[in-house]
Design goal:
Blueprint: E1 37-41, E2 44-48, E3 61-64, E4 67-70, E5 72-77, E6 83-91, E7 94-101, E8 113-120, E9 125-131, E10 137-146, H1 152-156, E11 166-169, E12 172-176, E13 182-188, E14 193-195, E15 200-207, E16 212-222, E17 248-251, H2 255-269, E18 271-273, E19 281-283, H3 296-304, H4 311-321, E20 339-340, E21 349-350, H5 351-369, H6 373-394, E22 409-410, H7 411-430, H8 436-453, E23 455-456, E24 463-464, E25 467-468, E26 474-475, H9 503-513, E27 544-545, H10 546-558, H11 562-578, E28 586-587, H12 609-623, E29 625-628, E30 633-636, E31 647-654, E32 657-663, E33 669-673, E34 679-680
Length: about 675
């Protein structure tokens, strides 16, 4: 019995609009992907809609190393597209789609054919056709394929390439450019017919009642001078080995298990090999917009992921150390990096300065988590060069401009610099290297100067200012950036380093972070709702940034402000649930209302390294894990309020060995598994 052959319905995609045409995207606009399903296993990436068809619209397609190998993969059965019922991500690198089709023998509304499609990041697709019809059915299956081999950046800018002419190749199709680049699709079982002019593969399928058939499509690409992408080359193959530990969470709130599971899945999907040293891996900042070399955000993510082991931090630090500037001049020791937009109120900031200040911080904290001695010895000279640059850039006033040397002087940069100085001094002293006393003196001067220049007193208790301009004028804009003032870092014996703020300033900042102006109910706004220029979609002017919220939770918990940490934790967890636990790097700062959900930001990366790693930091901060592997101790100081009820974390790594803990409903912590000789400290 044949299927009915009514023509496919729906609009036929037309050519892209020319720049400047009515309705054409403006320069700088990004295609909408917040509703797309992204399958990620870098360097492979697949972007598809919930219906499962690859139509070539917008960013849709299969990409490897930034090149679109397949833009169209449209399935038709008996001339019709299956009716889409569900599309979802089954893992970070895989999406599944379910559709149905009625056969000509179906008298009622019940469809007789089920179509299941599973597509991975590298474009491999399995199409399973299953019949529930009462009689045998026979029907043609067609898959229309096309590609333009366009660069991801060009596609995102609305300038895709022209579809290439296909040729029949083996059991599928092949497309080749004049400069030798190619893409190919192979099919199993081999198609009965292949029409190159239409890019069409065709099968005749016959199914008995209850029977199923599977068609598999594989995508590959490359050029004349390289092996096919995905075949094990140093640049395109997936990282192997145990880069991140197999951590697990469970507890009274079942969402913690899913939050950590998805976060680890996303972190592994974002791992990419270093272009210079293929044995090293680091995280891409986010998909699909920021898959480039290691930078400040990937270093912050590696820091938050230290409970999963130190290998990721080591390889990220190595990658940045190779770029460190050398030779005479004021930039010696600085890690280079591009300028990044800082919103409408301040000029762009330098990501290289942020990475330079983060470098000694991450190395010092990695040592506390159990960094091997050989890795410490290798990376310590680079950290020393970063610290020498810090002292030179800060000058006698111990205030670091960003960008150097003209400024402005940002409060957040001073927080990063102070943390680097204190933790760097501790690191140098522990390793028997000179310079620790000078760094502590630098930090002391900085604390005094910060109180004079970056704290505005008022009847309500005061507030920090975001920056001082080169002419000395303060910028009074309060936002989530202030959370970094609470982030101090770990010293020996489970102690936190002193911060820029005194006890009174810390208490006041905790009150401000918990105010309705900053806490949207889903997390901290990057700019308070009462500030001039507030925009809930402003990436630095009102949107919720997951990294800042996680930093605030950890800082508030460490400072003893459990109530504020509790509210932010619940808001972030609720937001994660609404996003299927794959948190974007940011979302709109709209105020939470009853029954509402957080609104996606159109330019947000998802998955994003700092958002995924924030889940790890959030859970370990609530459990109060404070390791000191060199001292042979670990402290547990969980929140007494136990905001998520009883929680158990296992599969973490401290001192190179598995670590597990349990927090009771009363907020009491207990170590269940730890490295031999590691003692529970105060």
């Amino acid at each position: 019995m044949a299927l009915s052959t009514a023509p496919a319905s729906g609009p036929v995609p037309g050519p892209p609009l020319a720049p400047g045409a009515a309705g054409a995207p403006r320069a700088g606009d990004l295609p909408a992907v917040h509703h797309a399903l992204l399958c990620v296993a870098l360097p492979a990436l697949t972007v598809c809609a919930e219906h499962g068809q690859l139509t070539g619209h917008g960013l849709e397609g299969v990409y490897v190393a930034g090149r679109r190998l397949l833009s169209r993969c449209v399935l038709r059965i008996a001339g019709r597209e299956p009716l889409p019922l569900q599309g979802r991500t089954a893992a970070a690198d895989r999406a599944v789609f379910l559709g149905v089709l009625r056969t000509a023998a179906d008298a009622g509304p019940d469809p007789g054919l089920t179509v299941e499609r599973s597509r991975t990041a590298d474009g491999t697709e399995r199409i399973v056709l299953r019949s529930s019809a009462a009689r045998p059915v026979r029907f043609p299956v067609e898959v229309a394929l096309a590609t333009d081999l366009a660069d991801l950046g060009a596609v995102a800018a609305g300038m895709p390439g022209t579809e290439l002419a296909a040729s029949v190749h083996g059991t599928g199709m092949r497309w080749t450019t004049d400069d030798g680049r190619y893409a190919a699709v192979t099919a199993a079982p081999p198609p009965m017919d292949a029409l190159a002019a239409a890019g069409l593969l065709r099968w005749e399928i016959e199914l008995a009642p209850g029977e199923s058939r599977t068609i598999e499509l594989r995508v590959r690409g490359g050029d004349r001078t390289s092996r096919p992408a995905g075949t094990g080359t140093s640049v395109t193959s997936r990282p192997g080995g145990q880069v991140l530990a197999e951590a697990r969470a469970e507890g009274d709130d079942p969402r913690v298990a899913e939050l950590l599971r998805v976060a680890l899945d996303d972190l592994r999907a974002l791992l990419r090999r270093d272009a210079v040293r293929s044995a090293d891996v680091h995280l891409a900042a986010g998909v699909p917009w920021r898959c480039g070399p290691a930078g400040a955000e990937t270093l912050w993510a590696a820091r938050m992921a230290l409970p999963l082991g130190t290998r990721l931090a080591v390889s990220t630090l190595r990658a940045l150390a190779r770029t460190q500037l050398d030779g005479p001049g004021p930039d010696t020791g600085r890690i280079p990096g591009p300028l990044r937009d800082a919103g409408p109120h301040l000029p762009p900031r330098c990501t290289g300065i942020e990475a330079t200040l983060a470098f000694p911080t991450v190395l010092a904290e990695a040592r506390r988590w159990g960094l091997p001695e050989q890795d410490l010895a290798e990376l310590l000279p680079s950290a020393e060069r970063c610290l020498r640059w810090l002292r030179a850039a800060g000058g006698p006033g111990a205030m670091v401009p960003d960008p150097c040397p003209a400024g402005p002087w940002r409060a957040e940069t001073q927080a990063h610099a102070h943390r680097a100085a204190v933790l760097g001094a501790d690191l140098l002293d522990a390793c028997g290297r000179p310079g620790g006393e000078e760094l502590l003196a630098f930090a002391h001067t900085q604390r005094a100067r910060f109180r004079e220049r970056f704290w505005l007193d008022d009847p309500s208790g005061g507030r920090p200012v975001v920056a001082r301009t080169p002419d000395g004028a303060p910028r009074h804009l309060l936002g989530g950036w202030a959370a970094h003032l609470l982030d101090t870092g770990l010293l020996g014996g489970g102690r936190y380093a002193p911060g820029l703020l005194d006890a009174a300033g810390t208490d006041q900042l905790a009150r401000l972070l918990g105010s309705p102006a900053l806490d949207s109910g889903w997390g901290l706004r990057s700019l308070g709702a009462a500030e001039p220029g507030y925009n809930p979609f402003g990436h630095r002017a009102g949107a919720v940034r997951v990294h800042e919220t996680a930093v605030a939770v950890a800082g508030l918990a460490a400072a003893g402000h459990e109530r504020g940490a509790q509210f932010l934790t619940r808001g972030l967890l609720d937001a994660a649930e609404s996003f299927g636990y794959r948190l974007p790097e940011m979302y709109a700062g709209e105020q939470r209302t009853g029954g509402g959900v957080p609104v996606p930001h159109p330019a947000a990366c998802r998955p994003a390294a700092v958002a995924a790693a924030a889940a790890v930091q959030l859970l370990t901060a609530l459990a109060g894990v404070r390791p000191d592997a060199p001292g042979g101790t670990i402290a547990l100081k969980p929140l007494g309020s136990a905001p998520l009820g009883a929680v158990r974390l296992s599969g973490l790594t401290v001192a190179g060995e598995p670590f597990a803990l349990r927090v009771s409903r009363l907020g009491l912590g207990m170590v269940e598994e730890a490295a031999e000789g590691l003692q529970l400290g105060g």
